[in-house]
Amino acid sequence: MSITDAERISKLEGRVEELSKRIDDLRNDMNHRFGELRNEMNNRFEDMNHRFEDTNHRIAIVQWEVRIWFLVLMALITILTFLKP
């Protein structure tokens, strides 16, 4: 029982079509996963930006407190120099 050229071509066409479907499925899966990865990265960047903003706010508060304490210290030094006999 020999296989004719037409049957061989028909089988090959079926296999090519099946491979093409598998490639399309893989492409769709990869696109979906890259989309998930992109969303995860965006979420992490947003979280990191939020943390930086919070850190910058805390730094600003500390700077303000340092300035206040510096002014208090300067005021005390000034007062003490006037009270010195």
Can you put this structure into words, describing what you see?
This protein has 85 residues and is an all-alpha fold. The protein has one domain (1-85). Helices cover 93% and strands 0% of the residues. The radius of gyration is 36 Å and the shape is rod-shaped. The mean pLDDT is 93.
Secondary structure elements and pairings:
Elements: H1 5-83
General shape: rod-shaped
Proportion of beta-strand residues:
under 5%
End-to-end distance: 125 Å
Total strands? 0
Condensed summary:
The protein has one helix and no strands.
Task: Give short descriptive properties of this protein.
single chain; 85 residues; 1 helix; mainly alpha
